[in-house]
Amino acid sequence: MGRHGMTLLSLNIHPGIQIDLSTAKTYKIHQTTKMIQGSVLYIVFLSLGVKVGVMAAPLCTTGPAGCHRLPLLELFDRVIQHSARIHGLSSDLHTVYEQFFPSSENVIGGRKCPTSSIPTPNSKDIAQSLTREELTEVILRLLTAWEGHLSYLHDIMAHQQDFNTYSGSKALEMSDLVHQLKNGVQIMTQRMQLLGMISNSLSSMSSAEVLDTPFLERSMSSDHDLLYCLRRDTDKVQSYLRVLKCTILPEHEC
């Protein structure tokens, strides 16, 4: 049994979730490659049913009546925990897909991600060299891009005969998780601005402004790329949030 808890007939995708692979094996033996892909993606998006309940209480910037106003440290801890869970889920999804359709070695170095147009630091040292505003903006741009891309994935899956409505709903659910994280980071950013820790000069952006349209158009033929890029970018977001926390609150576990 490996790190992901895989046995001959089942696979533990996430704590509390086990997927029976016997049906997928039957498809693999008796169906065409196209139908296998539909079955595999059904399994992949089935695991998106995990609820990430990090933001249990409303997170308010100014603390009006009925809202639980959290300290900045707890806001950081919550969004970091949320990002870690999303990254863990995206990693598991990528692993499941790779077990059915291993990517060739010569493809890995040539992948193009839908967020490739967003400049991102490729090391902790470079991330630490950015201003607080710059790093916050990178985080928000990545989340905004994936929020739109996952919504697009849901839309195109709804029109693909190889996928059913249930699979499409799981893609939309993943989009909702990313949307929750983006909202949490925005609330945290507003708190830092109110405390004078960062300036109010962050540029606003919409999903359309950061989406890579050519990538979207070929995404259904690039499932490896999509899942690989999602795993990569959720890891980046998690790392950048930790760096930002250490920059803003260096006295706490840094």
UniProtKB/TrEMBL annotation:
Signal peptide: none annotated. Keywords: Disulfide bond, Hormone, Secreted. It comes from the Eukaryota. The keyword Secreted applies. One of its GO terms (molecular function) is hormone activity. InterPro entries: 4_helix_cytokine-like_core, Somatotropin/Prolactin, Somatotropin_CS. Gene3D superfamilies: 1.20.1250.10. PROSITE patterns: SOMATOTROPIN_1, SOMATOTROPIN_2. It is found in: Secreted. SUPFAM superfamilies: 4-helical cytokines (SSF47266). Its main location: secreted. GO terms for cellular component: extracellular region. Belongs to the somatotropin/prolactin family. This is Prolactin.
